[in-house]
Write a structure and sequence with these properties.
This protein has 296 residues and is of the alpha/beta class. The protein has two domains: 198 residues, Rossmann fold, CATH 3.40.50.150; 76 residues, no CATH class. A seven-stranded mixed beta sheet has the order 3-2-1-4-5-8-6, sandwiched between helices. Strands 13, 14, 15 and 17 form a four-stranded antiparallel beta sheet that branches. A two-stranded parallel ribbon has the order 7-16. Helix 3 runs parallel beside helix 6. The longest helix has 17 residues.
Length: 296
Amino acid sequence: MTTRADLPVLDLFAGPGGWSEGLRTLGLRDVGIEIDPAACATRTAAGHTTICADVAAYPTAPIRGKVSGLIASPPCQTFSAAGLRAGNDDMDLCHQGLDDLAAGRDTRDALRARCADARSLLAVEPLRYALDLTPEWIALEEVPAVRPVFEHIARILRAHGYATWVGVLNSADYGLPQIRRRCILLASRTAPVGPPEPTHAKHAEPESLFGPGRAAWLTMADALGCPIAEVVTRGEHHEGGTRFSTAAPSWTLTCQARSWTLRVGNREQATHRTLDQPSAHPVVRRRPQRGVLVRR
């Protein structure tokens, strides 16, 4: 007999499978809904069950009673600081959409037509699925600017018997070599919920009466296996070239200081990180960003 625990997790806006890989390590499986064909192909190649469809148009009736949990990472472009932030102008429409869904009214099409960017309203889709499917647990992730929407969703979920928690977490606090802040919503119909305990801190903490302190944030050097020392960055032969510090500016023969840093984006005030720091959150662009020599 199939129990609720045997059922898969539903992953909205599933992308190429980040959530799916995490679930797999926990011994869980998911079914992802994703609209991008390339992302669907990547998921399929990795062995993750995928429905290639628009989350906003997909009906919930065919999957009612067939999922145990709900995960969603709505697209962040309209709310992200790296974009035009049209989501700020659409925030009231998002709140109205949530209230309407809670009252049993589906006004998404009309509200979408009034949005400065139609993608903003995708932030309300997780509530539609949650109310229709009543999963045992829910986990949502988005940029911090979406926190008012998540807090609104949490209030509605509490009225339907869920325990909830909403807050902003930093990936560097959990052992990843990247400073990446994200708003998280956790909800459960069967147990209290709260944030995971951080394992790392900006600076290593000493041992106390309560046990060992948190370790220092992991750096790019830790992740790349690159020592905090000098590196050869230029040279046309097997030997020689110019040596630059991986952690501090180095003077060259031209009397200009240079250092090896990661520059995120091409803006004049782009974020820079040295190898003895975690990386910054990358700006999504057509070409991947990489370490570059920056004139100081």
